[in-house]
Specification:
By secondary structure, the chain is an alpha+beta fold. It has one domain: PPM-type phosphatase domain (Phosphatase 2c, domain 1), CATH 3.60.40. Helix content is 31%, strand content 27%. The strands form 2 sheets. Strands 1, 2, 3, 4, 5 and 8 form a 6-stranded antiparallel β-sheet that branches. A 5-stranded antiparallel β-sheet has the order 7-6-9-10-11. α1 packs antiparallel against α2. The C terminus is likely disordered.
Length: 248
């Protein structure tokens, strides 16, 4: 509702064997942040395209190293192009294959899981206010409305190297994953997210409802959301499994 340009990027890449879902929220100004987020999405998708099995530590290392590879490519570009100096991006990557999920994370875009009516945030923000919450100086509610709530402490591209976080777990039939930029999660609290995700609407309508809710509360940033619904055992199998919409 406020910004004229969209610095978010996303992708959905699914086969019968696996799904890759990426949200990246760029920073650095129009024509810089959008470049960083686009580069991150393209590199991550390319490097992980061959993944079909999430068992073992090797694939976790691959996801982490892929995020670091994207970081180096973006940072190198900031050194050679004056108008790209200071650009960077968040990156949240969700892989689903068989009965497993794996997440790679840098920044404050988030991955949530709705299971049996309970919404859980699977990732932890790399942000100033999250560090204050962890240290006991702020409550989660205070952090939401803090003037520095949008200040992140880690991003892809700002420095020569970055340390991504990774998370893994089991997938069950009926699970609903949300991958979203802070244009959504910064405007809509977890309680309301859970209500909207838990409705009986189709995934496409749920995404539309999430975006409408964020815009109704001011729409201060670009909004990107991917919903992944698990319908059958161990599968991202058909067009019903994933419904996405991205609006900036």
């Amino acid at each position: 509702m406020i910004r004229s340009g969209n610095e978010d990027n996303f992708t959905v890449d699914r086969t019968e064997a696996r799904g890759i879902f990426i949200v990246a929220d760029g920073m650095g100004g129009h024509a810089a942040g959008e470049v960083a987020s686009e580069m991150a999405v393209q590199i991550i998708q390319r490097e992980l395209a061959g993944v079909t099995d999430l068992e073992g530590d090797d694939v976790t290392a691959l996801v982490v190293n892929t995020l670091r590879k994207a970081n180096r490519a973006i940072h190198d570009r900031t050194l050679t192009e004056v108008d790209k100096q200071g650009m960077g991006t968040t990156a949240s990557v969700l892989l689903v294959s068989g009965a497993k999920y794996l997440i790679g994370q840098v920044g404050d875009s988030r991955v949530y899981l709705l299971r049996d009516g309970t919404l859980s945030q699977l990732t932890k923000d790399h942000s100033y206010v999250q560090e204050q919450v962890d240290a006991g100086f702020l409550t989660p509610e205070q952090a939401r409305y803090h003037p520095y709530s949008n200040v992140i402490t880690r991003c892809v591209g700002a420095s020569p190297d970055v340390q991504p976080d990774s998370y893994r777990g089991e997938v069950r039939v009926g699970d609903l994953f949300l991958v979203a930029s802070d244009g959504l999660t910064g405007m809509v609290d977890d309680r309301r997210l859970g209500q909207l995700l838990g409705s009986r609407a189709e995934p496409e309508r749920k995404v539309q409802a999430l975006i409408s809710e964020a815009n109704g509360r001011g729409g201060l940033d670009n909004i990107t959301a991917i919903i992944v619904q698990v319908l059958t055992p161990g599968a991202v199998l058909d067009d019903r499994t994933v419904e996405i919409r991205a609006v900036g």
